[in-house]
Every structure is written in structure tokens, then in C-alpha cells.
Design a protein that fits this description.
alpha/beta; 3-dehydro-L-gulonate-6-phosphate decarboxylase activity; carbohydrate metabolism; 3-hexulose-6-phosphate_synth; TIM Barrel; eight-stranded parallel β-barrel; orotidine-5'-phosphate decarboxylase activity; 3-hexulose-6-phosphate synthase; binds ribulose-5-phosphate
């Protein structure tokens, strides 16, 4: 299973600093949606230039204009970009078209999708490289939240999937056991007192 760090900071400088600390422990470096909105797609270019050996993931959360938004993300240096599962099929197909033209990949983020199993199968058929079983920061903050629903949806869908939703050392083993291709960790790394140690501990937990 691959480990993806989600960088939900707000400046290119901070993103480069964090990526420099944790890159050796992760396979995929994600530039979070708030970061891309605050800093622009130049942050994707900066990270790809600093870490050409890593898979760079632009969390665009595209909802419309799929081909156009995917094209600009891939031109900026992204290897993977996200489209929302709630988008129209034509938006997802457009992003997949751009991915094929660049030899890159589209990840469909199932945040906010009620029936994640059905949608996962549909978007995989449209050409998604994998789906993200995702509970966002706001959903995670609700009382009683846990990862169980995401993990069972991933296992049931039988398509390649990642899991994002506050993954931490205590839960990353469950993500691996559910059969995920990628575990995503944001806050568990960037909010840690020692992000490099936090990333190493996550890596060690799935080694
Ligand atoms: O895309 C996101 C929020 O929409 C986050 O990057 C993703 O949820 C991973 O961060 P965390 O591990 O803190 O949940």
C-alpha cells in the first residue's frame, strides 16, 4: 500500500518545507485544495520540480469543466488530479480524456457521495485510475465519526481505492487490511510536532 501525504497548508513555502521533511517516507505528495486555491497551480509545479521522483497529486476537486481543469493541472506537473464523484459523468470523462492525452491519471473523490459503492464502480468504468473513499475535514469533525463506513465501501466496491478521513497510526493498519491501494494522511502529518517522525511512523505501520 502506498502512503500519500496531504498538504493542507496555505503557502508554497510551507508546502515545500513540509514535503522536504516527509518525502522519504511517502510515495505520493498531495497539494490540498485550500493550498491550490491560495497559492495557485504554481505550487504543483514547485513540488514536482523539488520532488521529481514522487507522484504529485493535485487535489483539484473539479466539479465542472473536467477536461480543461485536468489539462491545466497536468500541464502544471501533476501526475494525478481529482474530480468529484458528484460531478456529471461528462465531467469525469472529460478529465479522463485529458489524462490520457498527458499519460497521467484521474482520481475520483467520493466525498459527499451517499452510495459510494455504486458510484465507485461507475466512475471506474469511466476511466478513473482509482477512487478516493473520503470523509472530509468537516465530516470528520462530527461526533461519532470513524473510518468503518469508508473501509467497508472500499472493500465492497472491488475497484482500486484510497482512503482519506483523518487516517493516523492507530487506523492505518485497518486501511491496509481493507485492501486500499493508498492511505492518505493529512493532519496526522502536517499538524504533528515532528512531521518527519509522524510520516515515518505511518510508513513503519504498513511496512
Ligand atoms: O482532501 C482533504 C479534505 O477535503 C484532506 O486533504 C484529506 O481529508 C486528508 O487529510 P486528513 O488526513 O487530515 O483527513
Amino acid at each position: 500500500m502506498k502512503l500519500q501525504v496531504a498538504i493542507d497548508l496555505l503557502t508554497t513555502e510551507d508546502a515545500l518545507e513540509l514535503a522536504g521533511k516527509v518525502a522519504e517516507y511517502v510515495d505520493i505528495i498531495e497539494l490540498g485544495t485550500p493550498l491550490i486555491k491560495a497559492a495557485g497551480l504554481s505550487v504543483v509545479t514547485a513540488i514536482k520540480e523539488a520532488h521529481p521522483d514522487k507522484i504529485v497529486f493535485a487535489d483539484m476537486k473539479t466539479m465542472d469543466a473536467g477536461e480543461l481543469e485536468a489539462d491545466i493541472a497536468f500541464k502544471a506537473g501533476a501526475d494525478l488530479m481529482t474530480v468529484l464523484g458528484t460531478a456529471d459523468d461528462s465531467t469525469i470523462a472529460g478529465a479522463v480524456k485529458a489524462a490520457k492525452a498527458h499519460n497521467k491519471g484521474v482520481v475520483v473523490d467520493l466525498i459527499g457521495v451517499a452510495d459510494k459503492v455504486t458510484r465507485a464502480k461507475e466512475v471506474r468504468a469511466l476511466g478513473a485510475k482509482f477512487v478516493e473513499m473520503h470523509a472530509g475535514l468537516d465530516e470528520q469533525a462530527k461526533p461519532g465519526f470513524d473510518l468503518k463506513g469508508l473501509l467497508s465501501a472500499g472493500a465492497e466496491a472491488r475497484v482500486p481505492f484510497s482512503v482519506a478521513g483523518g487516517v493516523k497510526v492507530a487506523t492505518i493498519g485497518d486501511v491496509q487490511k481493507a485492501g486500499a491501494e493508498v492511505a492518505v494522511a493529512g493532519g496526522a502529518i502536517y499538524s504533528a510536532a515532528d512531521p518527519a517522525l509522524a510520516a515515518k511512523e505511518l510508513r513503519d505501520a504498513i511496512a
